[in-house]
Protein: Myomesin-3
Organism: Chiloscyllium punctatum
Amino acid sequence: MATRLLHHYHNKPELFGSSSHAKRHSAERAILTPVLSRPERRSQYRRGKSEPGKEVLFGNEMKTVDENYYKAQKLVSTKADQKAIRQKVERRAEEERQLAADLEAHAPEFVLGLRPHTVWEKMSVSLSCIVQGAPSPQVKWYKDGVLIQPTAVPGKYTIENKIGLQTLGISRCSPEDSGEYSAIAINSHGEALSYATVLVNKHQGLDSGGDSLKLESSQLELDVDIVDGFETSFGKEGDSLALTCTFSSPLRDNQEEICWLRDGILLKESKWLKIEHSDKFTKLTLPHVHKEDEGLYTMCLLTWTGYKEHSRYVFVRDGPAAEVGAPGSPLDVECHNVNKDYVFVTWKPPSADGKSAVVGYFIDRIELGSNGWIQCNEVPEKLCKFPVVGLSESRTYQFRVRAINAAGISRPSRISDPVTTTDPTAGDRVMNIQTDIGIIPITKDELEGDVRIPHPPTNLQVTDIGQTYAALYWKEPCPRGREPLTYIVEKSVAGSSSWQRANCEIPVSCPRFAVTDLVKGKLCCFRVRAVNKYGISEPSQPSEAVSLGETPAALSPPHDVIAIRNTRTSVMVQWKGPEDETDLLGFYIYACEVGTNNWETCNNKPVNSKSFPVHGLTPGKKYVFRVKSVSPAGLSDYSAESTPIVVNNPIFLPSAPYGLTQLYSGKNEMVIGWKEPRFPIGPEILGYFLDFCDAVDAEWHEVNIKPIKTKLYKIQNLTEGSFYQFRAFAMNWAGVGQPSEASNQFKCEEWTMPEPGPPFDVVFAEVRSSSLMLLWQPPVYTGAGPVTGYIVQMCEADSEEWKTFNKEPTPKAHMRISDLEKGKTYTFRVLALNSAGIGLPSLPSDPVLTETRPGTTEIDVGVDEDGNIFLALQTPEAVDTSKFIWCKDYEEISSPERVLIETTGDTSKLILIDPAEEDVGTYSVIVTGTDGVSSSHTLTDEELQNLKKLSHQKRNPLIKVKSNWAIEHLEKGAVRLWLQVESLSPAAQLRFIFNEKEVSSTPTHKINFDKANGIIEMIIQKFSDEDEGSYTAQLQDGKAKGQFTLVLIDEKFRDTLSQSDFQRNEWERKQGPYFEKYLRWEVTEECDLLLTCKVANTKTQTSIEWCKDGKQISNVTYDPQTGLSSLSISQVSRKDEGVYKAVVADERGRDSSVLELLNQAFDDILQEVCRTGGFSASALKVQGTAEGIKLYSLTKCNMEFMKKTWYLNEKSLESHERRRMGFDNEHIWLQIFNPTEADKGKYTLDLFDGKETHKRILNLSEQVFSEAVTEHQRLKQAAIAEKNRAKVVKGPPDVVNIMEDKALCLSCTISGDPIPEVFWMKNDRAITSGEHYQVAVDKMTVNFTIQQVTSEDSGKYSIFVKNKYGSETATVTVGVYKHGEE
């Protein structure tokens, strides 16, 4: 391929002149002209020929020329090859761009075409379609091939184009509007057509009674409508919010034709919002609300007759501040100019500054997949924009922003959408070339050849200047070379030739960078160099000189702020923007209730329009408003405040009356009735105007000049037998509204039927979940006789069947409809009855949904502070023009002299002036100017009597007592008599009476009167016999009175006097050391008796002594620090019974405490000891003994005073020769001698302490018994052996001293069976009986004799006895001394 291209350029040398590098290579082209062959050149040089101005070359110089020639020829060929390819690629790219434009542009097409409609006359219909095309097509509408011109028939046609949705609206259809309608869409690429038919049917119904219709069964299904849309909502950052719209019927195939919009922008599902549909509703959920979610939300539904939409505003309040006083979070964080290592971030400032102004912002970034946020700037940025540099290529980042003020840092904003750092120009450097072998992609880098050192960048400019940075942009060099490029950014003070590198630490790999560390006020220039692995390019041309300067000032505030009523709870605020709207991001609106100085933010997302509806206001309150401008530099100052405005319904022209019906007809007159307009709810209707039209001339004529106050009117001077139509207008303070739809044609002929005419004005009130009150007006025409009753019929929604509600006619023109199904829609009509039969039905009522609306209030019945019996209703829905209409038994109150009606704001009160039996009945109230607020209350005779009693109490009030007379003993024996009543006013008066004489306060009898707390008290310093009697407090506070008496005589007085004396003595006692706690006893866990007392007010010299029965006790403990003294008695017995006394004394006085532990008191101690011992007794244990088996329980005390009973298998045991029972200080035991099998079983020990029994149980089973018997046998044998063992019962003395020549006789008594053998030893050597040593044994007596002792006989002598059971030794030491020695 390259070879063919080179051959192509050699054959066309003229193409060299068009090279893009012609100037650069002009020198090389000069060398090649003219082109000679090598032999010709050699011959020319040999001949020495030379051209003028040229030298002749020789030797190596000729070789150099040849080399230069070939190099230049190759370079030119290469450049020519690249130029041709570039030109072909550029042509191909231009063709592709044109092809893309051609592909994008296309003829119009109908995505959703028109649909046919069948409607009834006087209804409106909308034809809708969706059309697409590029460029956008123009749509024209036709009827039966004739172009529709809306201006030709004003008010008939409405043509709209909303987001590609084309709509044709036809109002008040007539049969003439039937036909084929088509929409033709046209643009430069063609046209498209969609058409549909519209069929308008006439009504078929009754001529009398008005608008009662009978629909054909073949009528098309009802169109889907929005019956319950979401309301204006107030969310909070971090919370969730759901918006729901409910439809009147299942959507069937329309679900895909629902769309949600915010501020006119189509919404799609994301992690920030979820959209779900069902056949009856659609729902949009914001799972985590942010301020970016604030705006006007619209749900658009495409139906058979067009489209229907529902819009409401969603407000988002700031979440709780991260720190007290910190600002709100910024919003709308967006990323721009994304490059390989650079992102430019912008945001909008928060509406709430906090406690001080915002001084700057921190920008954070996070790389997708990592966990931690990284702060991008160290110095807070004041402007709402910041370039982030130093990013990594091909990484995905998200950003967030935090606002800073003096109080702290805000919550972070919502994170931005993820962005990936890539080279945005990479795609522009790739071209596709069509060749014979296919498409070959070629990059510009490949066409630039072997460029080593890159050219300098171009078009360097400063794109943005912030508070701390200057953002630069330049174009990459061309050619740039194949090697990767980086850049060096340099800065220099303007006018200086010294350049300093600006990106020492941050590599720059894209043509964008932000220079920081600039000095405010100094002009700086910038230049850029390109770098690759071969070297550094020349610098670019310097940029213009710029300076950071001062931070740009915020915009000037808006002005001319005005507030206009919008709805009952909202106000439309309008203003004019600042003169200079450069960089304007929107406006924030603030509201304040007059008199509170509490300013609240109305919107947390800047609005771009210069008007805004402020919702969520309190009806009847007065507000002022102000506005701020929003720009990247921050918020402006506040605008001037608007004029205060009271929030309430605005006054609009009334809508048209409806439901015109014929109530009576004479020969030349008619009575026509109608219903009042539905909207607006608030303003009062001042009257009506009526027009009539003869069916022949079809010209409307006025019936009345002055307004009609009622909703029916008699029209006279008509022509008998003629047909007439009527229409009505309503008038309020705003003017005369639109006319109603023309009525049916009514024939003017005298009614002679015997049945009554139709009742009229059927309305409902007191609508609740299962009931409502239906009211109507009697028929104007009564027929042959008076009306005797009424029949009420009702019809459920989606049904044509009328059902009779009351089996028996009701005589009154009202009826309570009960037992309705909650949440259903009903329609009612009424028929009058006389002696001739049932008359014509009334016009059906409006449909009513049976539900109790949130916030519904009922009539409150009670008695006010003045004693008036009242019925009152308060409703927050009342407006300034509302009226409260009170009725008794649903009829206008005919005796106004019996009631007084007071209405203030949203509350109306009906007061019964002189309540009597005739006031019993049902009272009802209807509040005009509201959406049906009404209530009723049936006042029964019993309730009235109770209210009259309460009224009497209110008019003759008694002072209520909180705490009746009480007696309180104070220190030093003083007595306080006091009572407490309800809180009294400062004007309250007190009369204190003692024994029928008024007394006043004295030092000894002080009287205190605390009016605020209602406390009356008398403090008697020294209570005595003179204070016996009655005490009375007489109170009066305005009309309220009260008298309260304390009778203090006889036993009550004596008790009080005794207690007073005691308190006085106690006080005197405590002036020196005294017993804070008197002597008392307790039994410890170890069954010891512990006597304790506690003394107080002691000194170092204070002493305490104990005695029993007058004898001092010494073993007493006393701790001066705590004042505790105690005496512990172990093993309590009767000897411890007596009178114990403790005395504490010092120089200030003495006090004593006596504790008598006698008789029953001591028995109680013993019982407690037994009880404690019973609890502490261990479980029964078994022990084998030499005598037999012993069962025992360990105890902590002597159980002498406790009843102890042993049981074997539930049978009580007694002591006998084989069974012995006993106890000591440590045991309770049962000894069984010579146990046998009969001794097995369940043993129980009952310990009775006088109140309760403590049981200990042991099951002497076979194994336990066998083990115990075995031990018994062993011990028995051991006892026998011990008894019969050889023993020295009475041995010799331990030491014997004897004089020489004396006789020594040692005598011992022994025992044992059999008789033991006897052996004597001296110094452990056996002695043989002989002359010197004589041993004599006489039965159990052994004598050892030495007749004449010598000094050699001194030593240790032992007697050793033994038999078969054992042995024993006794020892004596013999000392022999000489004559004369002592």
